[in-house]
Amino acid sequence: MARSKISASLLAAVLAGMTLAGCSSLENNDADKKNLDRFTAEEIYKRGEYELENSDEPEDAVFYFSEVERLYPYSEWAKRALIMQAYASHRAKDYEVARASAQRFIDTYPGDEDAAYAQYLLALSYYDQIDEVGRDQGLTFQALQSLREVIERYPDSEYARSAILKFDLAFDHLAAKEMEIGRYYLKRGHYAASISRFRVVVEEFQTTTQTPEALMRLVEAYLALGLYPEAQTAGAILGHNYQSSPFYRDAYRQLRGQGLEADVTGDSWLTTVYRQTVQGEWL
To answer: Quick one: 94 and 196 in the same domain?
Structure first.
């Protein structure tokens, strides 16, 4: 998964404050952590910057940024510390805290220039938890929803393009999950169950990389059931849209093995898909 990046304005602020942070009288020890009210918001914030850039434990930076927010809740430093708390928490892979901090920033400062970055961080906190296909897909749905927020609410921001790319990858991830289940059923001869999964991919995830294989598996499943018109139509869609795909060659071989051609026949849901995707008849 791609790592998040700090926004340009925040990064400039971090670099500008590094020298001061290194010279601050605030040290990273238990005594000072218990007596932070002796220091200004700026001093605590800059210590957080210093820990973020020089420590292998982003949790220390999170602590200082959260203390700025706690001790000086209505200051400009508190606003800056809140977005940095979200960023540092994400780096620490404490995704729940990252989400909470980012959402709090969005709710409190919706018109701020860093609101787009906060929304992007919130989306990343879901996206970076998407693991192998076999896991529960709840996080994938949440990632898609949050990425869509970035794309729709901040289309001109520097994060919109990255959000679009990640949205496509997450969308493909959901389709891959359907394919995994469909292949499981197909291998065990549960053809009707497998067809329902491959149909979801063809109808709802047409733009993903999973569609060619889904069509080929439909050919395989329908042939096994003796439903030749459906198998031929699936092959026709595959041949028209993905003729150079190895999945088409496999589907063509299976059809020829039964003395059939890839052709649109009958009147099934696949016929409707053909009319829509090949002939453009959406109405």
So the answer is: no
**What is the 3-class SS of the chain, one letter each residue?**
CCCCCCCHHHHHHHHHHHHHHHHCCCCCCHHHHHCHHHCCHHHHHHHHHHHHHHCCCHHHHHHHHHHHHHHCCCCHHHHHHHHHHHHHHHHCCCHHHHHHHHHHHHHHCCCCCCHHHHHHHHHHHHHCCCCCCCCCCHHHHHHHHHHHHHHHHCCCCCCHHHHHHHHHHHHHHHHHHHHHHHHHHHHCCCHHHHHHHHHHHHHHCCCCCCHHHHHHHHHHHHHHHCCHHHHHHHHHHHHHHCCCCHHHHHHHHHHHHCCCCCCCCCCCHHHHHHHHHCCCCCC
Q: What is the pLDDT of residues 155-178, one digit of tens each?
A: 999 999 999 999 999 999 999 999
Q: Give per-residue pLDDT as tens, 227-274.
A: 999 999 999 999 999 999 999 999 999 999 999 999 998 889 999 999
pTM listed for this prediction: 0.75
**Looking at the structure, do residues 15 and 107 belong to the same domain, yes or no?**
yes
